[in-house]
Structures are given as structure tokens and as C-alpha cells.
């Protein structure tokens, strides 16, 4: 894979969404290693930390009262209540910080939050990351649960059901990536970022193949495996 790049920043806002367990965090970390000037927005959440998660690294962990105070104060670019229990949100200050430093910003947010941001910032570049099949997603969810020392069948089923629901919003996203092989997915996301920054040639061709509207065979196969109609894109 290509090495780290140093180029002028355009202040682009990238919206990244994926079903829980899709390997999104690992993929985003790899792309940030490859491409200079990508700032990652750390979301706020009211859920409890998992495993080795640290405050200010994976999330800013807070309580319901403080989160609701921030909502009332207009401090969120977007926020949502996920799985009917915990809040997640992106602070407006994250976008301002990235622009001040001349960086592009990656927003790691769920579909609810993404749709909010698309309306507020229509020029944002939206990317949906999905696993190749529900079987792979279930395996990843189980592996994560086992690593955390908690395996809850009801939670796993809820995540799988939620994934199908989220995939039905795929047409709202400009790009779609299948996160099957990390190297390939990272190379494709890198190409999208560089193309949005103005690069042409090979990266433009790669990015074009990742357009949701391109109806790639891999994307159609993944949607079919989740029993989601390919007609949505």
C-alpha cells in the first residue's frame, strides 16, 4: 500500500457510517495512517466504556444529564439515541477545530446522525462501510463480545437486525465500501479521500468504482446476502 501523503487540505467533511461490528474503527485508523491531514472526531456517548476503551480516545464518555445539557445548549452538530438507551453525538467544536488547523474531518456516526449532518452540511462526503455478509458480521460481533467477556445473544440479534435496517439507507450515501479485506478497503477509502481533494488518474478510477450508484457486483452481492433489495441503490 502507498505511504503517508503530505498535501494541501481542503477542509472536507467525511461522514463514515457502518453497522456495529463492521470493522469501521480499524479501517479508519488505517486510512489515517496512510493519508496526512485527516482529523478524527471523537464522539460523545452516555454508554459505559468497553474493554480497554479510554475517555478521550475512542469516545468522550459522559452521563445523560450532561449530554442533555449539551443538546439544550446547541453544542452538537448531530446526536441520536441509539438502540433506545444511550446517546451518541458529535460536538460542533470538532468541526471548528479541524477547519482551524486546515484538516479534513472524519465523522464516525450512525445512520441517524449521518442523515442529520447531510441536511446541515450537504457538501459533506458520505461513505457507508458494510461487511460482506451477515455471517461475517455475526462472527465479528461474537468475537468482539467474547473479547469483552460478555456474550449476549439478544444483543447480537439486535445488532444484525439493525444492520439490515441501516443498509436500507445506503442510497443516501455517495460511496459504499465492502470491508472484507482491510488492505483493499483502506486503499479504496484512501482513493476516495484523495479524489475528493482533487486528485485524478488511478485514484479517481478507484473512487468511481466505489460510488453507491455504480452498482458494483461486490456491493450487490453483499446487499443480497442481507436480504436487502439491490434496487435501493
From TrEMBL:
Which GO CC terms are listed, alphabetically? cytosol
Residues bound to ATP are: 18-25
Q: Which UniProt keywords apply?
A: ATP-binding, Cytoplasm, Kinase, Nucleotide-binding, Transferase
State the PROSITE patterns in the record. Answer: GUANYLATE_KINASE_1 (PS00856), GUANYLATE_KINASE_2 (PS50052)
- Look up the domain of life of the source: Bacteria
Q: What class of enzyme is it?
A: transferase
Recorded hits in Gene3D superfamilies, A to Z, give: Guanylate Kinase phosphate binding domain, P-loop containing nucleotide triphosphate hydrolases
Q: Name one Pfam family in it.
A: Guanylate_kin
What's its EC? 2.7.4.8
Per UniProt, subcellular location reads as: Cytoplasm
Question: What molecular functions are annotated in GO for this chain?
Answer: ATP binding; GMP kinase activity
User: Guanylate kinase-like domain: from which residue to which, for each copy?
Assistant: 11-194
Could you say which protein family the record assigns here? Belongs to the guanylate kinase family.
Job description of the protein:
Essential for recycling GMP and indirectly, cGMP.
Protein name, as recorded: Guanylate kinase
| Organism of this sequence | Granulicella mallensis (strain ATCC BAA-1857 / DSM 23137 / MP5ACTX8)
Amino acid at each position: 500500500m502507498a505511504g503517508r501523503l503530505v498535501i494541501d487540505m481542503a477542509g472536507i467533511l467525511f461522514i463514515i457510517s457502518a453497522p456495529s461490528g463492521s470493522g469501521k474503527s480499524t479501517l479508519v485508523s488505517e486510512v489515517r495512517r496512510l493519508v496526512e491531514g485527516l482529523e478524527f472526531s471523537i464522539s460523545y456517548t452516555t454508554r459505559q466504556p468497553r474493554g480497554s476503551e479510554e475517555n478521550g480516545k475512542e469516545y468522550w464518555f459522559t452521563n445523560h444529564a450532561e449530554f442533555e445539557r449539551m443538546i439544550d445548549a446547541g453544542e452538537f452538530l448531530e446526536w441520536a439515541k441509539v438502540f433506545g438507551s444511550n446517546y451518541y453525538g458529535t460536538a460542533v467544536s470538532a468541526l471548528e477545530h479541524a477547519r482551524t488547523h486546515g484538516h479534513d474531518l472524519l465523522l464516525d456516526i450512525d445512520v441517524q446522525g449521518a442523515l442529520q449532518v447531510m441536511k446541515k452540511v450537504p457538501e459533506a462526503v458520505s461513505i457507508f462501510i458494510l461487511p460482506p455478509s451477515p455471517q461475517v458480521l455475526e462472527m465479528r460481533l461474537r468475537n468482539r463480545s467474547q473479547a469483552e467477556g460478555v456474550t449476549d445473544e439478544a444483543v447480537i440479534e439486535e445488532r444484525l437486525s439493525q444492520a439490515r435496517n441501516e443498509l436500507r439507507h445506503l442510497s443516501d450515501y455517495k460511496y459504499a465500501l465492502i470491508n472484507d479485506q482491510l488492505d483493499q478497503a483502506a486503499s479504496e477509502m484512501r482513493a476516495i479521500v484523495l479524489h475528493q481533494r482533487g486528485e485524478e488518474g488511478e485514484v479517481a478510477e478507484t473512487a468511481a468504482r466505489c460510488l453507491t450508484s455504480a452498482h458494483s457486483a461486490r456491493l450487490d452481492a453483499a446487499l443480497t446476502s442481507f436480504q436487502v433489495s439491490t434496487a435501493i441503490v
